[in-house]
Amino acid sequence: MFPDQSAPNLLQGLNPEQLSAVTWPPQSALVLAGAGSGKTRVLTTRIAWLLQTGQASVHSIMAVTFTNKAAKEMQTRLGAMIPINVRAMWLGTFHGLCHRFLRLHHRDAGLPSSFQILDSGDQLSLIKRLLKSLNIAEEIIAPRSLQGFINAQKESGLRASVLSAPDPHTSRMIECYAEYDKICQREGVVDFAELMLRSYEMLQSNEILRQHYQNRFNHILVDEFQDTNKLQYAWLKLMAGGNAAVFAVGDDDQSIYRFRGAHVGNMTALMEEFHIDAPVKLEQNYRSVGNILAAANAVIENNDERLGKNLRTDAEAGDKIRYYSAFTDLEEAQFIVDETKALEREGWDLDEIAVLYRSNAQSRVIEQSLFRSGIPYKIYGGLRFYERQEIKHALAYLRLAVNPDDDNALLRVINFPPRGIGARTVENLQTASNEQGITLWQAACNAGAKAAKVAAFIRLIEALRNQVGQMPLPEIIVGILKDSGLTEHYRTQKGDNQDRLDNLDELVNAAIEFKPEDSNFEILPDNISDDPAFPILAFLSNAALESGENQAGAGEKAVQLMTVHAAKGLEFNAVFLTGMEEGRFPSEMSLAERGGLEEERRLMYVAITRARKRLYITMAQQRMLHGQTQFGIVSRFVEEIPPEVLHYLSVKKTAYDSYGSPRQTAASKDKIIDDYKQPQTYAGFRIAILGGGLCGRLTALQLAEQGLSVALFDKGGRKGEHAAAYVAAAMLAPASEAVEATPEVIKLGRQSVPLWHNIRGRLKTPTMMQENGSLIVWHGQDKPLSSEFVRHLKRGGVADDEIVRWRADEIAEREPQLGGRFSDGIYLPTEGQLDGRQMLSALADTLDGLNVPCHWEHECAPEDLQAQYDWLIDCRGYGAKTAWNQSPEHTSTLRGIRGEVARVYTPEITLNRPVRLLHPRYPLYIAPKENHVFVIGATQIESESQAPASVRSGLELLSALYAVHPAFGEADILEIATGLRPTLNHHNPEIRYSRARRLIEINGLFRHGFMISPAVTAAAVRLAVALFDGKNAPERDEENGLAYIEK
Predict the structure, then answer these.
(1) Is 891 a catalytic residue?
(2) Which of 187, 191, 224, 252 is catalytic?
(3) Which of 17, 39, 340, 1017 is catalytic?
């Protein structure tokens, strides 16, 4: 429960309808939320209000969404509203929550703990294998037909045993369904529909389990309720029982997924079965201007059996809807190009412009015109990353590493890349599998004694299995790509396979960035996290549940192309609604189905309400589709829009060549492609960066990658020995730094970890990055420090699940050489480290590769270079002290704080992660680097002396090392180095700039250089690009909130 006096702040700004919904009594409700009416805010605020007023706890609320994106947005909003651990709440998609449920109760479900999820492609492969084993030709039962039949039955809650067959064909389908279930059970795999059905069956048959969840959840909130199918609704009813209040938010006018089994009738059923007298209606629209809403209301009014609502807005009427009827689809596409260019000239962002179409087949001509005009675009909802062939091959190897009995995975890669295991050998293995009732893996192991190539494959998989729990996930995947021969296969295969190779590289990046503990709705339960295979299981589950919402090219502004279905839940300033011809939208197929026209009209309603400010509706009187010229008349939906809100545009009489390009603007294809690929070069601009330490090198890298002409100047050498970063331990420790650092620094530290992943992927030279967390230990006399340390962590915003207590036996298991030395410890799983010196060298190598002139051992001040360069960026750290403090506008004072770090070498000790010894005076780390080197540090002394380390400091560092393990007493001391950390009086970094002097200054990273420099320099680069473009600089960076201080 949270203080009641803060409740009014939570409800502030809600309109009367929203307020009524949010503060609804603790009983069931149906909220009819029109497009753009703030339903996400209502749902999230309802949860926060229930928690704040003490009507519920995080453990008694379940919130169900339909997409990963919606779940993450809800988590973010809740976290900003009230101080709760959102991850303790059951918040996620139906499939994600059922996955979590089955992981928790896998024994009751009759599943192995390592069960895998079959995506659609893997399910189809299994079905093809099944049909082959039953000697059923694909002409008799098509695999996709059987797949649709099985999924439809499961989504209706029906097993094969309860189905009856009206004819012999259906009887065979039912037999196949039963056999399919047996194979899945034997192999320990479940498809998406099974996640729901198995969970539903368990709740239905297991009274103890059902009572547990019905007693636990007293509030169940559901988003997009109009999209639920019958099984999902039945599952919700079992979870709710007779006590829980179901708070369902939906819009029957946006029910557009009938083809997936969505049942809009669930809304009326909910009202009847949960005794809801009338729905709460949210009719105030905050998205679209008046004319757009008038069109949407007029169209949807033509549907019967609506629950009834009418959107309204306080916004102005706005622009009329622009309607354009083109002669051909080429002309329609050129109109889109011309209008997009006009919008861009008027200052509209490209990523706020969307082109919608009813079917994917319509996109080609539009794509072609956009490309030839040099307008960047993205296909939203194209082939998803994890569905690409090469990715599925790599993941199949990963699946075998944790579950070799996964027959689908084995069949996919036993002879891919080709290794001479022919179809006959595979058939023999399948025969042995069927006859003996064993998996293909077991059959292969039995056959390996006689078949050398099968034996080699078994050795490959066994080697992968041995790596599980011993190596980080990214290294395992790198090994898979190399040892399996996948990378080499695509590199040497005929044809251009660069895209496939790039995708395999991206898979490694995905593994590097993936944090099992940061997963949300689909996270595996806590009780499995000790399993050494946990990171792989979480990664595979995440891949299977991936919704394809995060498309490539993030950050680049581009026109968005997508189907109307894909646009659901999105909004844009300008929308082109294309192909508005009868038989295309509404689709010809829908006109022949009962209820089909109403579904299409709801789809039109969704399309119209995607637009905030401007809507274009276009049609083509003739178009090429599927190789044929088709002639069309205007869609009935356009005729349902009141004429007074339409602005009819005249047809432009432009001549087109045979390729569909306007003759007057035709250009060579090669030139267009070259122009399209050209980066922004800021022609003539020259930028000098002063200071070649960590910040200077990172800033130079980011600017050079954007095509800018950059030169780097530093008083030290290429190794960076004069930089503060050269001495640093390079810890990435935003959790433990929360004890002393400011909230701003902690935020920057958390943002920088994924940035480091990205940076390392762009470097020419490999560098170490360890993310095994860190371990905090103490001696008996310092035990009070541990309780104080935990209190500080929590006060600094570190979540409970980021603070893990390890007992003595757990320390011994995870750090064998510390066994018996400490009675307990604190494990911080989100922490890690780099090798700072490796990173400095790798950055220098990469700058060389980008042809950045690096002037080492060249000390200079800004005034020395202002005549030669257009802009200067000062990254000198403590070296800029005089210039920083002499500035008449300065609001902060720069000083140096001395730090000392020891480096030792010993092959006798192995640590798997940094170990921090709680110390009354210093936060001392022992950080294991590569090649048996350990970094110990760091002291923190209020002094600007750069003299060598004192005996006292050396003793403190080395005694901490000896106290952790006496064997360190035999280590070789490589060095005890000193450095000055550039520190501002508020202990936060600052970015200052002066237009008059054309100067940007970055400073004050204190002892957090490696921890926060990616986020700080990224903010500085965003400021620099804005200034180079002549734009007004914002007051703060939009990504991390760091202030831009103008001098």
Answers:
(1) no
(2) 224
(3) 39
User: Alpha carbon of 221 to those of 53, 59, 66, 897: distances in Å?
Assistant: 17, 13, 12, 52
Residue where the block lists tokens 């070789």? 972
* CA separation for the pair 639, 987 (Å, rounded): 64
Bridge-partner residues for 561, per DSSP? 355, 379
**Alpha helix stretches (DSSP H) within 381-451:** 389-402, 407-413, 423-436, 440-447
Please say whether the dihedral angle defined by the alpha carbons of residues 336, 342, 345 and 348, taken in this order, is positive or negative.
Answer: negative
Catalytic: 254? yes
Task: Return d(Cα 150, Cα 145) in angstroms, integer.
Answer: 9
pLDDT at 296: 93
Predicted confidence band at 8 (pLDDT cuts at 50, 70, 90)? very low
Which residue of the set 610, 760, 903, 981 is catalytic? 610
Q: Which helix (H) or strand (E) holds 72?
A: helix 68-81
Q: At 442, which amino acid appears?
A: Q
**Residue 155: other Cβ atoms inside 10 A:** 19
Give the model's pLDDT for residue 248.
94
Phi/psi at 731 (nearest 5 deg)?
A: -80, 140
The Cα–Cα gap between 773 and 768 comes to: 14
Share of the chain above pLDDT 90, in %: 49
Q: How many CA atoms lie within 13 A of 293 on its CB side?
A: 23
Q: Is the pTM of this model over 0.85?
A: no
Based on the residue annotation, tell me whether 838 is a catalytic residue of this protein: no
Omega cis (within 30) before 728: no
Told to judge if 610 belongs to the known catalytic residues of this protein, a careful annotator would answer yes
- The Cα–Cα gap between 591 and 78 comes to 43
Identify whether 253 is a catalytic site residue: no
Q: How far apart are the first and last CA of the chain?
A: 46
Helix/strand/coil percentages in the chain, nearest 5: 45, 15, 35
Distant-in-sequence contacts of 438-444, Cβ < 8 A, 24+ apart: 439/186, 439/187, 439/404, 439/405, 439/407, 440/407, 440/410, 440/411, 440/414, 441/400, 441/404, 441/405, 441/406, 441/407, 441/410, 442/405, 444/410, 444/414
- CB atoms closer than 10 angstroms to residue 108: 15
Q: What is the DSSP letter of 641?
A: S
pLDDT above 80: residue 10: yes
Residues paired with residue 325 on neighbouring β-strands, in sequence order = 619
Selected catalytic residue, list 40, 53, 467, 622: 40
Among candidate residues 147, 232, 254, 846, the one labeled active-site is: 254
DSSP letter, residue 679: P
- Given its phi and psi angles, is residue 660 left (phi above 0), alpha (psi -120 to 50 degrees) or beta? left
**pLDDT one-digit tens code per residue, 769-780:** 999 999 999 877
- pLDDT of residue 2 exceeding 50, the answer is no
**Cα–Cα distance between 936 and 903 in angstroms, integer?**
6
Pick the catalytic residue from 194, 223, 251, 802. 223
Active site residue 40: yes
Query: What is the mean pLDDT of the segment spanning 270-278?
Result: 90
| Buried-exposed string 1006-1024: b where 16+ CB fall within 10 A, e elsewhere | bbbbbbbbbbbbbbbbbbb
Nearest to 285 by CA among 609, 590, 556: 609
pLDDT at 1030: 81
- Give me the pLDDT at residue 89, please: 87
